[in-house]
Design goal:
The protein has three domains: about 110 residues, Rossmann fold, CATH 3.40.50.10800; about 80 residues, Rossmann fold (3-Layer(aba) Sandwich); about 90 residues, Rossmann fold (3-Layer(aba) Sandwich), CATH 3.40.50.10800. The protein is of the alpha/beta class. The structure holds 1,3-dihydroxyacetonephosphate and iron/sulfur cluster. 1,3-dihydroxyacetonephosphate binds next to α3. Its cofactor is [4Fe-4S] cluster. One of its GO terms (molecular function) is transferase activity. Keywords: 4Fe-4S, Cytoplasm, Iron, Iron-sulfur, Metal-binding, Pyridine nucleotide biosynthesis, Transferase.
């Protein structure tokens, strides 16, 4: 509509005025995906935030992502268009809970998923995302006990892939991905037996799919457990015509855009992250105009969290 194109024009003008870029996660609404300078998964966006020469980063994603950008680039202004864009998974562990857990396992190495607060990262040795979690754990000596947090499904996936026995897993979950159950995937697969499965490791169905794959019940060559960035890569490279997508449904916009001749079916069409959907064109414009909401991390916490985030950016 006219209104929409006017807002987009204004966003472009303000971006120039501020020397700003827009980073957007794959779960953002289509309008935001379409105007992003960089669209990607958590790891790609953290790397883009570290590398950009822009003065201002408008983070179209959720709070922990903007915090990570602020820690990587303290000299830049990081804006989150809606302060309520949080994450249920990041909320599943506090720094106090982590300190207690560490006290129960003295000497253990702490590996935290990037979906955590800056305070939790400051208590961690390594950060990881879904695209490099296996490599990060494999980079830690075999005899070293590991505390992995906060996602239990990603934790089980990593434990299974690495064969690591000395890894304790926090029992947190993302309410959106936990709600994608084995029944959802099986239901769609029954109607589309030829489809390839793209499953995010945060999903409730990821654990059972690993089992079904190992038992030969799900075809191994057609079952892929991947980060959102790697799902996009796989859907481009694969020769399959149909895909069952087990993650937040926002990514399907990008899959369809990049592969107009292929079909993408949501495992659970209700897998919608309310936090990711809080970012709108209007709020992005207001963020640029009014320089809000600035996300910064206290220097002491940022310094303590930086090593674990640098390791995440460097590996995988
Ligand atoms: P990735 O895009 O890194 O796979 O992460 C998924 C997610 O839930 C981010 O909030
Ligand atoms: Fe957090 Fe889940 Fe939303 Fe990702 S999809 S931002 S993990 S609540």
């Amino acid at each position: 509509t006219d209104m929409k194109s006017r807002i987009i024009e204004e966003i472009q003008e303000w971006k120039q005025k501020r020397n700003a870029i827009l980073l957007a996660h794959n779960y953002q609404i289509p309008e935001i995906q379409d105007i992003a300078d960089v669209l990607g998964d958590s790891l790609a966006l953290a790397r883009a935030a570290a590398d950009t020469t822009a003065d201002v980063i408008v983070f179209c994603g959720v709070h922990f992502m903007a915090e990570t950008a602020a820690i990587l680039s303290p000299e830049k202004t990081i804006l989150l268009p809606d302060l309520d864009a949080g994450c249920s998974l990041a909320d599943s562990i506090t720094a106090d809970q982590l300190r207690d857990w560490k006290a129960q396992h003295p000497g253990a190495v702490v590996v935290s998923y990037v979906n955590t607060s800056a305070e939790v990262k400051a208590e961690s040795d390594y950060c990881c995302t879904s695209s490099n979690a296996v490599e990060i754990v494999n980079s830690i000596p075999d005899d070293q006990e590991i505390l992995f947090l906060p996602d239990m499904f990603l934790g089980s996936f990593v434990k299974n892939e690495t064969g690591r026995e000395n890894m304790h897993i926090w029992m947190g979950e993302c309410h959106v991905h936990a709600g994608i159950a084995p029944d959802h995937v099986e239901g769609v697969l029954e109607k589309h037996p030829e489809a390839e499965l793209l499953i995010h490791p945060e999903c409730g169905c990821s654990t059972s799919s690993m089992y079904l794959k190992s038992e030969g019940i799900l075809p191994a060559e057609k079952t892929h457990i991947l980060s959102t960035g790697n799902m996009l890569k796989r859907s481009k490279e694969s020769e399959a015509e149909e895909f069952i997508v087990a993650t937040e449904v926002g990514i399907i916009h990008q899959m369809e855009k990049q592969n107009p001749d292929k079909r993408f079916l949501a495992a659970n069409p209700n897998a919608v992250c309310p936090f990711m959907k809080m970012i709108t064109l209007e709020k992005v414009l207001a963020a640029l105009k009014e320089n809000k909401h600035v996300i910064s991390v206290p220097e002491e916490i940022a310094n303590q969290a930086k090593l674990s985030i640098d390791r995440m950016v460097a590996i995988g």
